Amino acid sequence: MHNRQHIWPRIAFGALLAFLIPQRLWCAPTVQLLDDAFGTWNATLGRAIFLDLLPGEAELPFIVAWLIFGSIFLTLRYGFINLRMLRHAFYVLIGRYRTRSDQGEVSSFQALSTALAATVGLGNIAGVAIAITMGGPGATFWMIVAGFLGMSTKFTEATLAQMYRTVRPDGRLMGGAMEYLSRGLAEKGWARTGRFLAGLFAVFTVLGALGAGSGFQVSQSLGAVKSAIPFFDRYPIGYGLLVALLGGAVIIGGLRRIAWTAEKLVPAMTVLYMLSSWFVILSHADMIGPTFQRIVTSAFTAEAAVGGVLGAIVQGFKRAAFSSEAGLGSAAIVHSTAAVKYPVRQGMVALYEPFIDTVIICTTTALVLLISGMYDDPALAVLRDNREGAALTAAAFAAAGPLFANVFTLSVFLFAFSTMLSWFYYGERCWVYLFGERRALIYKIAFLFFIVAASVTSAKNILEFTDLLVLAMSFPNVLGLYLLSGKVKNALNEYIAKLRAGIFDREAQR
Questions:
Q1: The dihedral of CA 455, 459, 460, 463: what is its sign?
Q2: Which one of 65, 89, 220, 364 has the fewest CB atoms closer than 10 angstroms to its CB?
Q3: In which domain, by residue range, is 423 found?
Q4: Which one, of 102, 85, 89, lies nearest residue 507 by Cα?
Q5: What is the DSSP string of 123-183?
Q6: What is the pLDDT of residue 341?
Q7: Which pLDDT band, with edges at 50, 70 and 90, does 307 fall under?
Q8: In angstroms, rounded to a whole number, what is the distance separating the alpha carbons of residues 178 and 480?
Q9: What b/e string do you get for 387-416 counting C-beta neighbours within 10 Å, with b at 16 or more?
Q10: Residue 301 DSSP label
Q11: Number of compact structural domains in the chain
Q12: 482 in a domain, yes or no?
């Protein structure tokens, strides 16, 4: 408590300095030099991550294939757990099997809400529009398929996170890919390899959270907000300071404050976005049936802008993987803190992340774009050519009236803000894993600094570099999921046997 009392004055002092420093200093030649340097690194890292595995116009980046085959492997290994255990997972989610012996920092629902806060974001808005633009309406079908497969990946991550979580000296739980990579592989006799992969994952997460989880969210949401609030167009640093102060008020309170905020914010913003989306959809009710028919038929025809059927498959899987973050290992960090008796039980809760994020929300966005006709409107050709997915979705809402345009702007802000909160926690836990709890304040200040800086700088290459690092998290993580899937399989079999024997019902009644 003593340390927390001294945090706010430092944050306030930093915010005051940020306001007093002239805006032109943020865009100094030093920033440009750094941005140019990152541009060179991006080219090298991008060639490795997005190495095209297919000849011709259709593209299959290596990172997408890595995530796709990982999700297919895990789905088959667990006997399609994403379908056969969905009903039981819902009962776990609503607390039916809660027991007095559950131990953790937050509830299962709070952990799910925090994880969803990170995944339900601009990818659900911009990413879907890009997928349909490049892959045609059929990309929506393959996006849904990818969402179902990603459920198995999230199940594995959350289960392993619970299995290998540790209690730190301050009483806080530490878990996630860095723990199951280091400790899990050590059990197999690969201690050095495990520590190396865990350290690599932690570094990628820390840097990725500062850019993709902080700066990118601010810069993208500012583009939508300033069109509705001209003040932020003239003084963008004001938006950065506002978001930093709101974010600081939450993150200084630690995981419990973040989880409490996510528990309230995620359902509210999801319902708001879904209601407005379905109003737009139902205003064209006669188009719903034909649109679903077109989605299914074009998934197997050459309607994609690039690559025909293969292009639709690649775009659908690609955007689903980027949206739900299945395979990145990020959500495992917060799932490790959930209060459950059995690790597999939290894995069941995690099944719902890709289902809600991709199967429900992304599909809804796709319907808005397809039914409104904005995805192929000739007047919006420039937006499609520039891959401005958020702007395309905004046009679909604006066509329904100014009220829906304002709702869309609010949704963009809430999606971005909630994503920042969760990614702060992911980065902070990995920072603590690398440098210890005493140096956590350094990361908190850096995260808030990036929020303010992103509102007034245009360091595109720096942000793109951190995006690449976020995707790079999947390299060590998915490798760990492959190697440790046998242990998860055994735990799943034991869990199902107890479920069928009625043991869980008796435990919950105690």
A1: negative
A2: 65
A3: 26-508
A4: 102
A5: GGTHHHHHHHHHH-THHHHHHHHHHHHHHHHHHHHHHHHHHT-EE-TTS-EE-SHHHHHHH
A6: 87
A7: low
A8: 10
A9: ebbbbbbbbbbbbbeeebbebbbbbbbbbb
A10: T
A11: 1
A12: yes
3 falls within a domain: no
Phi-psi region of 339 (alpha: psi -120 to 50; beta: other; left: phi over 0): beta
Q: Is residue 354 domain-resident?
A: yes
Beta bridge partners of 173: 167
DSSP labels for 376-419?
G-GGGHHHHHTT-HHHHHHHHHHTT-HHHHHHHHHHHHHHHHHH
Q: What is the pLDDT of residues 157-188, one digit of tens each?
A: 999 999 999 887 766 778 889 999 999 999 99
Would the CA dihedral through 281, 282, 284, 285 be positive or negative? Answer: positive
Contact 63, 474 (CB under 8 A): yes
Query: Residue 222's domain is classified under what CATH number?
Result: 1.20.1740.10
Q: Average pLDDT for residues 122-135, to the nearest whole number?
A: 75
Interatomic CA distance for residues 486 and 32, integer angstroms: 48
- In sequence order, which residues have a C-beta less than 8 Å from that of residue 312 and are 6 or more positions away? 135, 136, 138, 139, 141, 142, 298, 299, 303, 304
Neighbours of 205 (CB within 10 A): 32
CA angle 467, 472, 475 (to 5 degrees): 160
Residue 13 lies in a domain: no
| 351 vs 215, residue with greater confidence | 351
Dihedral angle sign, alpha carbons of residues 309, 313, 314, 316:
positive
**How far is the C-alpha of 347 from the C-alpha of 343, rounded, in Å?**
7
Report residue 91: phi and psi, to 5°. Answer: -65, -40
In angstroms and rounded to an integer, the radius of gyration of the C-alpha atoms of the chain is 22
**Tens digit of pLDDT for each residue in 455-469?**
776 555 655 666 677
